[in-house]
Here is the input.
Amino acid sequence: MTALMERIRQEHSSIAFEVSQLFKETQIFLSDITVERHKQAKKLAEELSKFHQNLEQENRDFLAATEQQRIEQAKKQAEELLKFYQNLQQENREFLTATEQQRIEQAKKQAEELLKFYQDLQQENRDFLTVTHERRMTNAQEQNQQLCQFRRDLFISIFGTESSRRSAK
Here is the structure.
């Protein structure tokens, strides 16, 4: 039984030694894994940091380029807008000049037509007044002759003869 106990002790000791060896190997393995993972994590962190820096630099470059493009585009649009505005002003001046010229010509034509109308009206008025004056003169002469004839007739009817009137003169 002692031999059995001894053998159990040896096996126990051997198992304990193997467990201890296994524990040490496991600790070494875990330590190596931890060191390796720390190295990988550090390397990954460095790569990530470098990627982040590169990304930020690319972002700054992109934004600078985009800003420059937008500035150039804004300048181009401003130039086009200025050119459009100047063309619009020129067209407006030309339109106003043409319109002014048309209105001046139209006003001259209206003035000529009005002057002609006024002259025609004056001529018609003179002609009317002349005709009316001639009629009145003719009527007056006729009335004067009729009046003279009436007086003669009246004188003859009152005094009897026309010769007496001549003698009365």
About this structure: The helical segments are 2-159, 163-168. The two ends are 215 Å apart (CA to CA). The chain is about 95% helix and 0% strand. Residues 2-168 form one domain.
